[in-house]
Amino acid sequence: MPAWRRALNSPVRAYVEAARAVREAPRRPMAIASAVALVSLLAYATVRHFVGTSMVDMIVYRAEGAAVAHGRDLYALRVTEWNLPATYPPFAAMLFVPTTWFGIGFLRVAITAGNVALLGVLAALSFKLVGFPRRELRPVGVVLVAGLGVWLEPVFTTLRYGQINLALACLILWDLTRPDGHRGKGVAIGIAAGIKLTPGLFAVYLLITGRVRAAFTAGLTFLGTFLLGALVLPDATYGFWTKYLFDSTRVGKTVIVDNQSVRGAVARLLHTENPGLLATAAGAAVAIAGLAVAAWAYRSARWAPRAEAWGVCCAAVTAVLISPISWTHHWVWCVPVLVLLAAEAAHERSRPAAVRKARWRVILGVTLLGFLCFGMWVVPHKGDLDLHLPATHQLPASVYPLLGLCFLTVAALRVRSRRIAAGAPLVRLPRQRTADGTQQAPAAR
């Protein structure tokens, strides 16, 4: 079958499979989950009505699309009362053009509904990645996550601002859950990187885990997005890649509690808007360590279940940790992380009572609480208070970086313990060449 026909058939096949899974799901749990999700979403709609949602990022996206459609200077625009500029590559602005066909009122409803649906898609992809729960229960899980997941702070904020984080996460996770031998693997990651550069780290993850073709496919696709932007918007492309990309002031202040990256945490600890070399060194150390743990987890599949899921989640957490600015809504990767920890907790719960422990259930509970607590918003931070946070406020102000670093540490300890328990080398050694030129596997130590 030609590649173009396979591409057209893929969404149809996915829809048919999803419909079949819903029909085959147990009726009583599905009915209960649907009722719980409906009540949760109605409560969310009520809270949203009284709290108010500006959806400022959606307005920026629409303005970017209008600038492309009408030939205006993309990076000179300023919109909303906060004078927000365009910060994404020109390719992303081109994708936003269809938003100009509708009014803002319609877009508020459509993008909110679309993001709730994408939350369900992200849950389904997370279940597929982790291999949990049982296949017939996954539609029940999707409904519950779509209904209850809106209360996770990163998701709540994504909906509040009309952000595209859930769409990018779905693109990346869909790509990573495809078979390694699939010719198109890497394309979706390349497109996501063309929209918002941070997803490019997943191409690095593919490369260091030995999936070279997929990594190069992602890289070539990203190059294609650059060339398309240069062809349609040459001046904007030149400006973005030579000037605006390096102007962090366009994105926001590093020190504010909204920024849940390592650099933001260091800036608040040092009480400075420019944390300088120390923050750069900390980010580089986390990047190296995080990618090393991700690759180590992936290459431990022989001894540890859910190895790919651990690798992907470690790469995702590393990406948001090392970005100079990671707003709270960038942490929507908490969804697959929580699914993965739930799988570990369920496996732990299934053990005989005599050997059962509660480690994973505690880790799951603490992580879930961290993403539900809205801790950074409780800390007084109006005006310049971000620069003067006392020691007692540092933990809630940087709760996501702390959770991310703890997650990477737990992942490394898990891989180590699994390898030791199996009597395997802590690091897989390369095959050694014998005198006759053949390769021989090293003995386990």
UniProtKB/TrEMBL annotation:
Q: Topology relative to the membrane, per the entry?
A: Multi-pass membrane protein
Instruction: Name where it mostly resides.
Output: membrane
Q: Give the organism the record lists.
A: Kitasatospora terrestris
Q: Give the protein's recorded name.
A: Glycosyltransferase 87 family protein
Q: Where in or outside the cell is it found?
A: Cell membrane
The record's family statement is: Belongs to the glycosyltransferase 87 family.
Q: Any stretches that span the bilayer, and where are they?
A: 30-51, 101-125, 137-156, 187-208, 215-233, 277-298, 358-379, 399-415
Taxonomically, which superkingdom? Bacteria
Q: Name one Pfam family in it.
A: GT87
Keywords tagged on the record: Cell membrane, Membrane, Transferase, Transmembrane, Transmembrane helix
